[in-house]
Amino acid sequence: ISAAASDPRINPANVKAFNIRSCLLVPLVYRDQVRGLVYLDHTKRKHVFDQDEVDMIKTIAGQAAVALEHLRLRESVHQKELRLKEAEANEVLYKERERSEAIINANPDAIILVDRDFNIVSFNPAAERLTGWRASDAVGRSCHEILYGRKYSPDECQTIDCPIARAFRGEIAPLKERLYTRKDGTQTWIGGSFSVLRNPKRRIENVIAVFRDISEEKRLEDAALMDRELKIAREAQRSLLPKDILEDERVKIKAQLHQARLVGGDWYDYWIDDNRLVLVIGDAAGSGMPAALKATVAMSALRAVAGMAKDIMETIRLVNKTVLPSKLDDSFITLFYGELNLDSLVFRYVNAGHNDPIWIRKGKSSLFLPCENRFILGAFEETQLGVEEVQMEAGDRLLLYTDGLVESRNSRRVPFGINRLIRYVNANSSRTREALVEGLFARLIDFTAGKLDDDVTVIICDII
């Protein structure tokens, strides 16, 4: 919906309250069933979502729907496992009551037997290890004091949705997870299942509570979920980048990005607009998701304003204003932005705190592109930057890179460094773009033994 205010399907009150200008809604569909909804909106201006944006969101929505369905199925399997455990525990207690204490004491799970007054009748060694209470101190006490740190009157439970109280009422009450505080004040995540013992008249006399320390399982689940989310984020982030190769009769470009994690803060962009080549490389401070979010904001903002701004400085100022409100901790962005006139070969650029690109000149020695004013983006409201200008010639080559290249260290903590980079460039300046980039990464991987601590991006731009 590009004009929400005029669309009868949108509640006018919502349009006014949330200042919706345009929006995009994509269902989360799994096997022809809608599991949820992704909703995006623009509040600053009307926006027509193009097919690339729709396709990207549909891809993310499809992956999210599958992930949600997997979680639901896993929960179903978990419930079945809990019911099976309860059934097995009941069978053992009914058939082998004489041997139950030995079985309980040998069980690695914490088992607590509770009577109708909510007092503890039995407390196995695993329960001692889990709770920090000795069996001699726990038996006879209220189970609520052990579980919640509070004393309750007999036949009374003041904890909302207490699984033991629910079990006494005949309800199935598994405890999926709960942060438990031990007697010494330390905390751990526990899960539990609960079964009952009945007298010959089928009246519930006891509840058997089986607790497990699930801290490691929860950590692994969280890590697996995070890994899936990061993979989705990685694909979304990479979908915003241009292709690795640009082939034009006037310029040719080869780019390569190596991320130290699934997502990172390095990014690049380039496109040709009439007789102008726009060349961008940036680096959000840090790594991982915070840097990736910052980089994505900057990348999207620059693409959006580059075609509307009057000149280079206005483009940079607008990007800075966009990045500034999304400030994460003390993060910032370095950026190199350049525009090459493909007719005159005049290259105008702004260096916002980024590494100086290397200008490999045909028939002449290589040098760094000069820059007098540097100012990082996303740290301050006003930028103190200036536009630089150089005259290039056919046959020249630009090498742009992020700091991960020169700051990568070997096992002795020695950085790769600018000098090593310059020596490599001078010795291999006649090689093709692809060979130069691949050789540089091979040299870096060999230098660091394959252990890169930061994202590394390299762009080679040849002027034909």
What does the model show?
- The protein has 464 residues and is α+β, with helices and mostly antiparallel strands.
- It is 37% helix and 27% strand.
- It contains 13 helices and 18 strands.
- α2 runs antiparallel to α8 and α9 packs antiparallel against α10.
- The longest helix has 45 residues.
- The model has no long low-confidence stretch (mean pLDDT 88).
Describe the protein's topology.
Elements: H1 12-18, E1 22-30, E2 33-42, H2 51-95, H3 100-106, E3 110-115, E4 120-123, H4 125-131, H5 135-138, H6 143-148, H7 163-168, E5 175-181, E6 187-198, E7 204-213, H8 215-239, E8 245-247, E9 251-258, E10 266-273, E11 276-284, H9 288-306, H10 312-323, E12 333-341, E13 346-352, E14 358-360, E15 367-368, E16 388-391, E17 397-401, H11 403-407, H12 418-428, H13 433-448, E18 456-463
Antiparallel strand pairs: 1-2, 3-4, 3-7, 5-6, 6-7, 8-9, 9-18, 10-11, 11-12, 12-13, 13-16, 14-15, 14-17, 17-18
